[in-house]
Specification:
This protein has helices spanning 3-12, 55-74, 76-93, 95-106, 110-129, 166-179, 194-203, 219-227, 240-252, 277-287, 290-293, 311-323, 343-359, 393-396, 412-420, 435-444, 479-484, and strands at 18-19, 22-23, 26-27, 36-39, 46-50, 146-153, 156-160, 183-187, 212-214, 233-237, 258-262, 268-271, 303-307, 362-365, 383-386, 403-409, 427-431, 449-452, 471-472, 486-493. With 497 residues, it is α/β, with parallel strands linked by helices. It folds into two domains: 3-263 and 472-489, 3-Layer(aba) Sandwich (Aldehyde Dehydrogenase, Chain A, domain 1); 268-460, Aldehyde Dehydrogenase, Chain A, domain 2, CATH 3.40.309. The strands form five sheets. It has a seven-stranded mixed sheet with strand order 14-15-16-13-12-17-18, sandwiched between helices. A six-stranded mixed sheet has the order 9-8-7-10-11-19, with helices on both faces. Strands 1-5-4 form a three-stranded mixed sheet. Helix 10 (277-287) packs across helix 12. The protein binds nicotinamide-adenine-dinucleotide. Nicotinamide-adenine-dinucleotide (NAD) binds at residues 160-164, 187, 189-190, 218-219, 222-223, 226, 237-239, 242, 245-246, 249, 262-265, 298, 398, 400, 426, 466, 471.
Length: 497
């Protein structure tokens, strides 16, 4: 893609080619020799120089948030809702540019980034409408007395995001925290910092300075935010290992902190013998998220557990569909599958593929990297392994790439044991026309989000969150999300009878 496309989109969004943290309504400059180059992983081309925030910048962001928060809370739910609506309008007006920026930063196809950002805008609008649902309750605890609870904001909320859907996750996390009356300090993924900075700029003359701050950088910046004594509520999306590190750092800080952790998955899709094999094949491909994010989705159903009788027909249907997926550069409208997030991640995914071959799994399709104009990028072909055994690494570890493992089973007990034989517990998809089977399996499966004859879709208002090592707490629960960014206060009024 041309240098002009890259420069122009950054300029149109007010970012330029040097990007630093946005704190208290302005960009915080620093020692630019410490900057790192943010690259488009699909081509290796430079997008911008990004200056990582050290602890002093993180501290400045938290102080700015603390100073701004009382005024923000004092606007009331209607005042905050109106401003959030206006921010959503601004974001909607810049959606093509924001989506292109996310596509260049992630390597994901621009079509997918547009639909993700549009979902983020929609979520922001929905949260902006829900302020009046921030209700407490009254309790008839004494004769004549008045006993009620008030949900009140925590103050400053730390928001740490993963790289796969930058704008969508940003909106999903920031909107309820702001609606609850908190100020936020956002730490976007180091690979994809640009759209968060663009959003902060769009908000700069709309929200009071300090209400929405963005600190850019990697693990050291995130760690400083987690450990900051004034940040007592944190919402985090990322890998299990980092989630555990966040929990550890929170404890080591010596302060009690409330954490929401949205972590990884190794999710099963179970196909029962009465299912339609072609529908199941289509679901296996869609659920794997080969398109849009190249398998880099926490909810990807990367373990296909298919009844032995349907194995051949489902596998044939998968191979046929995978062959039609169009790989391409992320800024092209026709691209269905882009590049992985970085050359390092590409190598990691390829090493899983190599390991699976060595362990004896059968490579059915993919497994390599495309050539031509994609050779310079972090691409991996959509890959399917058959004859995967439960003990193999590709059956157990989250690859977070376009690799589907196929395992077979004979009876329901075996299917459930396979499905639950994992430390993860994020999503699961069940394919059967038998209602009793569907409900029996749905209740016994150890996962926080289960589909029956459906896959991949998230429904607004339906809580999404992981069991086991896949996380703590839920998101997408609309009014409940706003309440999750509040603390409950009980007030007891004695009445003399
Ligand atoms: P990651 O854990 O490497 O990074 C996530 C975020 O944490 C980034 O912003 C990173 O800079 C930051 N970070 C890194 N070390 C930190 C530390 N010590 N303290 C504080 N912050 C730190 O994850 P990733 O590679 O960006 O994303 C992929 C992972 O995210 C996968 O495991 C995926 O399943 C998961 N994910 C989960 C969900 C969900 O909703 N459950 C959604 C998307 C992604």
């Amino acid at each position: 893609m041309s240098v002009d496309v890259r420069r122009e989109v950054l300029d149109r969004l007010g970012l330029g080619h040097r990007c630093a943290s946005f704190v208290g309504g302005r960009s915080i400059d620093g020692e630019w020799e410490e900057a790192v180059t943010d690259r488009c992983p699909a081509t290796g081309e430079a997008l911008a120089e990004v200056l990582p925030a050290g602890p002093e910048v993180v501290d400045a962001a938290v102080r700015a948030a603390r100073a701004a928060q009382p005024g923000w809370a004092a606007l009331g739910v209607q005042g905050r809702g109106q401003l959030l609506h206006r921010l959503a309008e601004r974001l909607a007006a810049r959606l093509p540019d924001i989506a292109l920026l996310d596509a260049l930063d992630t390597g994901n196809p621009v079509v997918a980034m547009r639909s993700g950002a549009a979902k983020g805008v929609q979520a922001m609008r929905e949260y902006a409408e829900l302020g009046l649902e921030m209700k407490g309750e009254t309790v008839p605890a004494s004769a004549g007395g008045l006993h009620f609870t008030i949900p009140q904001p925590w103050g400053t909320v730390g928001v740490i995001t993963a790289y796969n859907h930058p704008t969508m996750y940003l909106c999903n996390k920031v909107s309820p925290a702001l609606m609850a009356g908190n100020a936020v300090v956002v730490k976007p993924a180091e690979q994809t910092p640009l759209s968060a900075l663009a959003l902060a700029r769009l908000a700069a003359d709309l929200l009071p300075a300090g209400v929405l701050n963005v600190v850019v950088g990697g693990s050291a910046t995130g760690d400083a935010l987690v450990r900051h004594p004034e940040v007592c509520r944190i919402t985090f999306t990322g890998s299990v290992g980092t989630g555990v590190a966040v929990q550890r750092a929170a404890a080591e800080s010596g302060r009690l902190k409330s954490l929401t952790l949205e972590l990884g998955g190794k999710n099963p899709i179970l196909v029962f013998p009465d299912a339609d094999p072609q529908a199941a094949a289509a679901a296996a491909v869609r659920g794997m998220n080969f398109t849009r994010v190249q398998g880099q989705s926490c909810g990807s159903t990367s373990r296909l557990l298919v009844h032995r009788r349907l194995h051949d027909s489902v596998l044939a249907g998968i191979v046929e569909r995978v062959a039609r997926i169009r790989l391409g550069l992320p800024d092209r409208e026709e691209t269905e599958m882009g590049s992985l997030i970085s050359p390092q991640h590409q190598q990691r995914v390829l090493s899983y593929i190599e390991g699976a071959r060595r362990e004896g799994a059968e490579l059915v399709t993919g497994g390599g990297v495309p050539g031509g104009e994609l050779a310079a990028g972090a691409y991996v072909e959509p890959t399917v392994f058959d004859r995967v055994e439960p003990g193999m690494r590709i059956a157990r570890e989250e690859i977070f790439g376009p690799v589907l493992s196929v395992l077979t089973w004979e009876d329901e007990t075996e299917a459930l044991a396979l499905a639950n034989d994992t430390d993860y517990g994020l999503t699961a998809s069940i394919w059967t026309n038998d209602l009793s089977t569907a409900l029996r399996v749905a209740t016994q499966i150890e996962a926080g989000y289960v589909w029956v004859n459906d896959v991949e879709r998230r429904y607004p208002g339906v809580p999404f969150g992981g069991w086991k090592q896949s996380g703590l707490g839920v998101e997408h629960a609309l009014a409940a999300d706003i309440l999750s960014f509040t603390r409950s206060k009980s007030v007891n009024v004695a009445v003399t009878l």
